[in-house]
Amino acid sequence: MKDIKCVIWDLDNTIWEGTLLEDKTVTLRDGIREVLEELDNRGILHSVASKNNYEEAVGKLEELGIAHYFLFPQVSWNAKSHAVSTIQEQLNLGADTFLFIDDQPFEREEVKNVHPKISCIDAAEFRLLLTDKRLQPKFITTDSRRRRFMYLEAAERNRQEEAFRGPKEQFLAQLNMELLISPATEEDLERAEELTLRTNQYNATGTIYSYEELNYFRISPDHDLLVCELTDKFGSYGKIGLALVEKQSSYWHLRMILISCRVISHGIGTVLLNYILNQAFQTGKKVRADFQQTDRNRMMYLTFKFAGFTVLTNEAGLILFENEAAQLLKLPGYIKITDHQLISKWK
Question: pTM score > 0.85 for this model?
Fold first, then answer.
C-alpha cells in the first residue's frame, strides 16, 4: 500500500459548502481547515482540481485563508483528469501517491478511468483522512514539515530557469549551490529512512532500510552512511541524498545511493557518485555498486554508465557494477562541495 504524498481537492461542496457560481458567500466546510493543517504538518501536499472560474475560486480560497496550502491549483472548465495530469507533472510524483477527493461520482469515475492508479474518495469522507494509514508517515521530520515551502522555492527556481537565456551550467552557477556531504548523525536517521521509502526514480537499489538498520550502518566501522543537504540562494532543499558505502580491503562497495527527484535536473546524483569515486581512487580502492533495474530508475543506470562503471554480473536485473579506472573525475564548477567531516575520516 503506497503512502499518499498529495491530496487533490475539488472545491464546490468539498472544500466549501455550496456552489461558488450560484452563491458567492459559500463557507468553508466544518473541519476542513484542521485537516489541511494537520496533513500539511505531516508533509502531505495539497492541490486543487475544480471546474470554476479561476480568479473567483482562488480569490475565495484566499478570502477563506487557506489558499497557501494548495500547490499548482488547476481551476478551469477542462476535464478533471487533465487537471490531475498537470498537477502530477508539476509535482513529479508517481500516480499511485495521489488521492483525489470530489463530491460527484461522475468526476471521481472520470479521473479513475484516465488515472487508474490514483485513489479517489467521496468528499463526505474527508474527515477519515487523518486516520488513513496511507497519510500517516512513520516520522515527521524537519524536511517533511517544510515540504510545501520546498516546492514553492523550486517553482521559483524553475520560473527563473525558464526565463534564463544561456547554457544550463551558467544558470546553475548563479544559484550559488552548495552540497554538504557528511556522515549521518542519529538526528538524520528519520529523514534517511524517509528517503528510502519515498525515493524511487533516482535510487540504485530501491532497498528500504529501517531506522534500526540505518543506525547499525551509522555506527559500523566497516560502513559509511552519508547524508547530503543542498542549499542555494533560495534556501535549503533539505536532506536530498543518501549513500551507503561498505569498505572492503581492496574495494569500496556502494550498497545504496539515492537522490531526491526534486534535484535530479541539477545533476546532483552525478556529483555525489563522482565524489565517492574520487575519494575511493585517492585511497587506492576500486568501487563496486549494487543496482536493481526497475521501470523507473533508468536515469540512475545511465549515471553509473557515464561514470565509467561496467557490468560485473547481471542476475535477472540485479546488477553488480564495477569501476576500477582509478582516474580522478572532474566535478562541475557550478556547485561547491563541503565535506570537511569526511576528508579526515577517509584519509
Answer: no
